[in-house]
Design brief:
The longest helix has 47 residues. It is globular and about 95 Å long. It is 47% helix and 13% strand. The protein folds into three domains: 154 residues, Glutamine synthetase, N-terminal domain (Ubiquitin-like (UB roll)); 376 residues, Glutamine synthetase/guanido kinase, catalytic domain (Creatine Kinase, Chain A, domain 2), CATH 3.30.590; 115 residues, Up-down Bundle (Four Helix Bundle (Hemerythrin (Met), subunit A)), CATH 1.20.120. It contains 25 helices and 17 strands. Bound molecules: adenosine-5'-diphosphate and magnesium ion (MG). The site of magnesium ion has 3 residues, from loops. The site of magnesium ion (MG) has 3 residues, from loops.
C-alpha cells in the first residue's frame, strides 16, 4: 500500500507539464506520504484493541487514578453543576499529568473556542529545566485551572474597545481532557472557557454553559409542578449530523479559491450532477471508506461516539453523525470531529471541505442540530412517553419549544448567519431563511384538538386517555418526515436543520436553550398560578396550551419549504424572511434579545454587542477575501487563458469563433474591472460596520457573480489545455 502510493506520487502526480509553475508547486506541496495509519484491521474481539475513549481522562480513568474522596467530591460538584472547590485541582492535576505522561504527552494546552468559530491552543511543555541538566514535569492545579493566553489577537468586538485586551482561560471540568496524538508526539488538551479579566465571555463555551444552567433551572421548576421530585438537573442534548465533501487533494491545491476561501469561486456546471441520484446512500468508494474508518477510529480514541456514515445527495458529499451527548461535550466533540476529519483526509490524499457551499449549482452542506432536554434521572422530556401523565408533560415542553421558536425566530436565524450560509439559506436551497416548525401530522392534530377546546376542563378524562380517547395517539419515535423543514420534530427531539456545515454548535444551542428556558418559565408561571388557585394539573394545563398554541401556530408549517408558495404564505403569516447575514445579525442586539439574555444571565448587552460586531466583521472580511481572490484568479489565470485561446483561433483563421470569444472576453473584462473597482478600499464605507456589510452584500457579491458568470461561459469554449483550473467534472467525480 505504502509503496504503490509512493510510486504514484513519484511518477503520475508530478507529470504536470502543462500545469502552470505555481500550480505545480502547489501540487508538489500537497504530496504527503499517504501513511494511512489505520490500514490493517485490529482484532476487535480482543479487549485491548477497543480504542473507544483510550485518550480521554474520563470518569472511569479518574476513578482509577484519583484518591477516592477527591473523585467523589469532583463527581458531586459536577453533577450538581456547582463551582469547583480549588483544593481539588492539585489532586486532579497530578493524576492527569501522570496519565498524560504515560501516554506520551510532552505538552499540554488549554483548548478553547474563541469567537472565530474554530478552536485555539497554545502548547506548553510539561518540562522545565532545573539548571542541573535535568528536567522536571511541571503541572499543578494552578496550571490546570487557569492559563493566560494573550487575548489581543482574538476577536473581542466591542469589549476590546473599552477594556484591556488581556484574557484568561479557565478549566471546564465538565468536558473531559483528552490527548491528541501526532506521529511525533502527543498533546494533553484541557477544554477551557475563555474570558476577559473583567469577566466577559470571549468565547462560545461560556454562554453555552450559562444557557444550559438557565434551561435546567426553568425545566426543573416545571418538572416540580408535574410532581417530579427526583430530577436535580436537566441537560440539553445535541447530536449533530455533519455534511461534508471529500475531494482529491490535488484539485484542492490546484485551486487558489479553495485554498483561501474554502469554496470554488469559478466553475461551469458539469454535464453530470446528482440527477441520476446515484450517489445518495450509494456504496461508499473504497478510498473514502478507508478515510472514514480511520477518522472514526481517531475520534473513538477521543471518546467521540460516531454512529452513522453515508453518502449524501451531491457527488463526493458525505455525512457523519455521532450519538447525542450533553450540549457542552457534544459541541466540543463536534469541533474535534471537524478538525480530525480534515487532518485524516490528508493521509488519504483527500481534502475535506466543510464550507457551506463549495460548489455553485451543487447541493451545499449543512449540519443538523438534533436537540432535546433530558433529566439526570434519564428521562427525555421531548419523548411522548406511554402514560397520559407523561404525555401531558411532553405537550407542555413541546408547546414551550413552539412558543420560543415563534417568538425568537429572528434570533435563531441570526445565530446561524454567516457569509457561507448565505449561499444556502435564502438562496434556492433548503432550508430556507424562513424559520418554521414541522410537527408532523399526528402532533399537529393533537395541538389542533387542544386549540379547538376538544380537550379541556370539561373532558379531563378523555384528555388523560382514561375514557374514550379524543386525542389520537401521540406520535411515537419516527413520526412522519419532512426533509425541507428548518426545524422539525423527529419523534423524541427537535432537529434544527439550518446550521452551516462549518459552524460551531455553541451559539445556536445557546440561543435554543435560552429561548426555551424563557418559554418554559412563561408557561410554568401560568400553570403555577392555576395550581396555586386550587385547580388540578389536568384541568389547568389544556387552556394554557390552547392559548399558547393559538398565539404561536403561525410558525407551524408541514408543506414544502422550498416552494415559492411558501414564501408568499409565510409573508402573509408575518413570518420573517431574513435572507442575508446583514439582515439577520442586527437581531442579536435587538431589544427583546438583550432583555432575554440578560434576564437569564447568558449574555450581557456588552457581550451581545461584541458578538454582533465580530460576526459583522467576519462577514465583511470573508467576502473581501473572496472578492480579491476572485479578481486575482480572473485577471491572472482566466483572462490570459482566454486571450491565448483567441490568439489560437485567430491563427487558425476562424473569424466566427474569434468574434464569439472576443465578445465573451469583453464581457469578462468589463466584469473584472467592475469587481476590482468594488474591491477598492476607498470605495467601501468604513464608518459603520453594518453599512459595510450591506455594501458587500449589494455591490461586491453581485460583482463577483457577474465575473463568475462570464468566466463560466469562457470555461465552456476555451481550449481545455489552456484552462488553468480543474473543472467540476473532475473535482466532483474522481474519487
Ligand atoms: P434521524 O435523523 O433519522 O432521526 P437518528 O435517530 O439516527 O436519525 O438521529 C440523528 C441524530 O440525532 C443522531 O446524532 C442522534 O444521536 C441524535 N439524537 C437522537 N436522540 C437525541 C436526543 N434525545 N437529543 C439530541 N440528539 C439526539
Ligand atoms: Mg436526521
Amino acid at each position: 500500500m505504502r509503496a504503490s502510493a509512493a510510486a504514484r506520487g513519484a511518477s503520475g502526480r508530478n507529470d504536470k507539464k502543462r500545469m502552470p509553475r505555481i500550480r505545480q508547486q502547489n501540487v508538489l506541496a500537497a504530496q504527503w506520504t499517504p501513511n494511512g495509519g489505520a490500514l490493517g484491521a485490529p482484532d476487535l474481539t480482543i479487549a485491548d484493541n477497543q480504542v473507544f475513549g483510550a485518550n480521554v481522562f474520563s470518569p472511569a480513568i479518574q476513578r482509577q487514578r484519583l484518591p477516592k474522596d477527591v473523585f467523589r467530591r469532583l463527581q458531586q460538584t459536577l453533577a450538581r453543576g456547582e463551582a469547583l472547590d480549588t483544593s481539588l485541582a492539585d489532586a486532579v492535576a497530578l493524576a492527569m499529568k501522570e496519565w498524560a505522561l504515560e501516554r506520551g504527552a510532552t505538552h499540554y494546552t488549554h483548548w478553547f473556542q474563541p469567537l472565530t468559530g474554530s478552536t485555539a491552543e497554545k502548547h506548553d511543555s510539561f518540562y522545565a529545566p532545573t539548571g542541573e541538566g535535568t528536567a522536571l514535569a511541571e503541572f499543578s492545579g494552578k496550571e490546570l485551572i487557569q492559563g493566560e493566553p494573550d487575548a489581543s489577537s482574538f476577536p473581542t468586538g466591542g469589549i476590546r474597545a473599552t477594556f484591556e485586551a488581556r484574557g484568561y482561560t479557565a478549566w471546564d471540568p465538565t468536558s473531559p481532557a483528552f490527548i491528541l496524538e501526532n506521529p511525533n508526539g502527543a498533546l494533553l488538551c484541557i477544554p477551557t472557557a475563555f474570558a476577559s479579566w473583567t469577566g466577559e465571555a470571549l468565547d462560545h463555551k461560556i454562554p453555552l454553559l450559562r444557557s444550559m444552567d438557565a434551561l435546567s433551572k426553568s425545566a426543573i421548576r416545571a418538572l416540580r409542578l408535574f410532581g417530579d421530585a427526583g430530577a436535580q438537573r436537566v441537560f440539553t442534548t445535541v447530536g449533530p449530523e455533519q455534511e461534508y465533501f471529500l475531494i482529491d487533494e490535488q484539485y484542492f491545491f490546484e485551486r487558489p479559491d479553495l485554498i483561501t476561501t474554502g469554496r470554488t469561486l469559478f466553475g461551469a456546471k458539469p454535464p453530470k450532477g446528482h440527477e441520476l441520484d446515484d450517489h445518495y446512500f450509494g456504496s461508499i468508494p473504497e478510498r473514502i471508506l478507508a478515510c472514514m474508518l480511520e477518522t472514526e477510529r481517531e475520534l473513538a480514541k477521543l471518546g467521540v461516539p460516531v454512529k452513522t456514515r453515508h453518502n449524501e445527495v451531491a457527488p463526493n458529499q458525505y455525512e457523519i453523525a455521532p450519538v447525542f451527548e450533553n450540549s457542552n461535550v457534544g459541541s466540543d466533540h463536534q469541533q474535534l470531529t471537524m478538525q480530525l476529519m480534515q487532518n485524516v483526509a490528508r493521509r488519504y490524499r483527500l481534502a475535506c471541505l466543510l464550507h457551506e457551499k463549495p460548489f455553485a449549482g451543487v447541493n451545499g452542506s449543512g449540519k443538523h442540530n438534533n436537540w432535546s432536554m433530558g433529566t439526570d434521572t434519564g428521562e427525555n422530556l421531548l419523548d411522548p412517553g406511554e402514560t397520559p401523565h407523561e404525555n401531558l408533560q411532553f405537550l407542555f415542553f413541546c408547546a414551550a419549544v413552539i412558543q420560543a421558536v415563534n417568538k425568537h425566530q429572528a434570533l435563531l436565524r441570526a445565530s446561524i448567519a454567516s457569509a457561507g450560509q448565505d449561499h444556502r439559506l435564502g438562496a434556492n436551497e433548503a432550508p430556507p431563511a424562513i424559520i418554521s416548525i414541522f410537527l408532523g401530522a399526528e402532533l399537529e392534530r393533537v395541538f389542533g384538538a387542544i386549540e379547538r377546546g376538544e380537550v379541556g376542563e370539561s373532558t379531563p378524562g378523555s384528555f388523560l386517555g382514561l375514557g374514550t380517547p379524543v386525542l389520537p395517539p401521540l406520535p411515537l419515535h419516527g413520526g412522519d418526515r419532512n426533509r425541507t423543514s428548518p426545524f422539525a420534530f423527529t419523534g423524541n427531539k427537535f432537529e434544527f436543520r439550518a446550521l452551516g456545515s462549518s459552524q460551531s454548535l455553541s451559539l445556536p444551542n445557546t440561543v435554543l436553550n435560552t429561548i426555551v428556558a424563557e418559554a418554559i418559565d412563561e408557561l410554568a408561571d401560568q400553570l403555577e398560578g392555576e395550581v396555586k388557585a386550587g385547580k388540578d394539573l389536568e384541568a389547568a394545563l389544556p387552556p394554557i396550551l390552547k392559548r399558547s398554541y393559538a398565539a404561536n401556530k403561525q410558525i407551524i408549517f408541514g408543506g414544502d419549504n422550498y416552494s415559492e408558495d411558501w414564501h408568499a404564505e409565510a409573508e402573509r403569516r408575518g413570518l420573517l424572511n431574513l435572507r442575508a447575514t446583514p439582515d439577520a445579525l442586527p437581531h442579536l442586539v435587538a431589544e427583546d434579545t438583550v432583555a432575554l439574555f440578560s434576564s437569564y444571565g447568558v449574555l450581557s448587552e456588552r457581550e451581545l454587542e461584541s458578538r454582533y460586531e465580530v460576526f459583522l466583521e467576519q462577514y465583511v472580511t470573508r467576502l473581501n477575501i473572496e472578492a480579491e481572490t476572485a479578481a486575482s484568479i480572473a485577471r491572472t489565470m482566466l483572462l490570459p487563458a482566454a486571450a491565448r485561446h483567441v490568439a489560437v483561433l485567430r491563427q487558425a483563421e476562424l473569424p466566427e469563433l474569434v468574434a464569439e470569444s472576443e465578445a465573451l472576453l469583453a464581457e469578462f473584462t468589463a466584469a473584472i474591472k467592475k469587481l476590482e473597482n468594488a474591491n477598492l478600499s476607498e470605495n467601501q464605507p468604513h464608518d459603520d460596520l453594518l453599512e459595510h456589510a450591506e455594501y458587500m452584500r449589494d455591490t461586491v457579491i453581485p460583482a463577483m457573480s457577474a465575473t463568475r458568470t462570464a468566466a463560466d461561459k469562457l470555461e465552456k469554449v476555451v481550449a481545455d489545455d489552456l484552462w488553468p483550473l480543474p473543472k467540476y467534472s473532475e473535482i466532483l467525480f474522481i474519487k
